[in-house]
Amino acid sequence: MAAAPPTRTVSSEKVPLIRERSLVPVGMATILPEATRHVRHLESALLRQFYGAGYDEIILPTFEYLDVLAPGLEPRLAENSYKIIDRTTGRILLLRPDVTAQIARTVAMGMVGARLPLRLSYRATVFRHEPEHVGRDREIFQVGAELIGADDPAADCEMITLMIESLRQIGLPSFKVSLGHVGFFKGLLVCAGLSAEGRKRAEEAAARKDLPRLEEIILQERVAKRSARRILDALELCGTADILMKGRALAKGEPSLLQALDRLARIYGILCASGFKDLLLLDLGEFRGFDYYDGVVFDVFSEGIEVELGGGGRYNHLIGRFGRDLPSTGFGLNVDRLFRSLNLSGAMKPLESPILVIGPTNRSHELISISQELRQAGLRVLQRSIAASGHNLIRMAADVARESEVSTTIVVGADRSKEDHVLLLPRTEAHQVGDETRTHRMPTRTVLKRDLVHTLRAKPEGAS
Question: Rg (Cα) of the chain, in Å, rounded?
């Protein structure tokens, strides 16, 4: 029997491919507990950054009616969506394939009010069918933001800046943002005389950076050699400010092409003046894979990950498919790819280890009381009772602490002569001395119950 295709299993150490027959559908994720803590921490950190910039979170339905959302979806995306029949109405339900289209539908229906501009953020999972041999995920965890009702370079810069600052906030050490304008490449295709179908196929090839396929399409469309050369040259124009000059040479005075370059130049200039120059690349062949983008677009890339971590751009006419046009821009980040990039770069910050409160079974009420007080103070607490006392209690508590990988162990009832005290057992610390790893345990100590929170929050001696 042939081996089943790869299935994602996400841990904090690696992302193995399980090639044995799996009970989990291909392209779906099982995220193990430690990795889940990191993923949720990552999502929360991004949403906090968005909220701090004025973006309010919106929660969207997992299912949509196909006939309602279809105007916002390109045909291929609608075709590759998962569909079921609604048992109540008999209508076709769509498992969410794209968040931006959902937000456009929601805004057009007036569900988030009429005050503009709107600043919305989200965390959501999207589902798209992909052929098994492609190796892409079918379940994609996203966090993103949308700015609706503003159409000027400052709004585009706000969106790109928010993405950059958010990636810095989560500790991503090295990344590049690729900037382009879909109007430039689309304009070249129109000027070259491609048919509507030919333009669509050429745009899809450009989004994949598939130069051989693009050449094939141009040949099929019988494009003049000079126009064909302009299209192919544009796809390879990537670099810094000099790319804009080369783009103007390709534009040959065509107003729509020059207008796109002028907008891109203004945004690039503002971002460079804001201190982001080293993070930016201009790419006149930048062409995201959704047909609703019609202005400046951008992708973010990081070392070690061969695909983009996320991206976005301007979509001034998407909301109009559901009602009146509203200029908009936004971006989405792939959480799974961000997690892997942070992991590969060694930038994944260790999360706080829990505190263990442990004691004899006949002191359970005290364990509950102490645990509640610590949790109310914002600490993560595990609680455990054991059938032991005296030295056995301390020894067994140390064994449980070692197995639980806790930061500190609080032993209740270790010394009957000091009922108002508890015993603290810090965990063993490891230190690198040259090529040798040495371990030592901080001394145990007794602490008054009423001083526990203050003691646990105080920095150890010598800590910076």
Answer: 28
CB atoms under 10 Å from CB of 64, counted, come to 23
What number of other Cβ atoms are within 10 A of residue 233's Cβ?
Answer: 16
Return all residues near 277 (Cβ < 8 A) that are at least 6 apart: 271
CA 58 from centre of chain: 16
| Distance in angstroms (rounded) separating the CA atoms of residues 297 and 338 | 20
In CATH, what number is assigned to the domain containing residue 374? 3.40.50.800
Residues 307 and 432 in one domain: no
Q: Does residue 256 lie within any of the structural domains?
A: no
Report whether 316 contacts 294 (CB < 8 A): yes
**Of 279, 312, 345, the domain-final residue:** 345
Report the alpha-carbon distance of residue 331 to residue 147 in Å, rounded: 9
* Domain span at 26: 8-174+303-345
| Adjacent-strand bridge partners of 94 | 64, 83
Q: How far is CA 276 from the centre of its chain?
A: 21
In order of 84, 124, 358, the CA distances from 94 in angstroms are: 7, 15, 49
Are 37 and 123 part of one and the same domain?
yes
Please enumerate in sequence order all residues whose Cβ is within 8 A of that of 310, keeping only pairs 6 or more positions apart, or say none. 142, 144, 163, 299, 300, 331, 332, 333, 334, 337, 338
Domain count, the chain: 2
Q: Any residues with CB less than 8 A from the CB of 427 and at least 6 apart, and which?
A: 353, 401, 402, 405, 406, 407, 408, 409, 441
Amino acid at 223: V
Confirm whether 101 is domain-assigned: yes
Q: Are residues 23 and 145 in the same domain?
A: yes
Digits of tens for pLDDT over the chain (464 positions)?
333 334 465 655 544 444 455 677 788 888 888 889 999 999 999 999 999 999 999 999 999 999 999 999 988 889 989 999 999 999 999 999 999 999 999 999 988 887 899 999 999 999 998 765 455 688 999 999 999 999 999 999 999 999 999 999 999 989 999 999 999 988 898 898 999 888 888 888 887 778 899 899 999 989 888 888 888 888 889 999 999 999 999 998 899 999 999 999 999 999 999 999 999 999 998 777 678 899 999 999 998 888 899 999 999 999 999 988 899 999 999 999 999 999 888 888 788 889 999 999 999 999 999 999 999 999 999 999 999 888 899 899 988 988 888 989 999 988 877 888 999 987 654 444 455 544 445 578 889 999 999 988 875 544 43
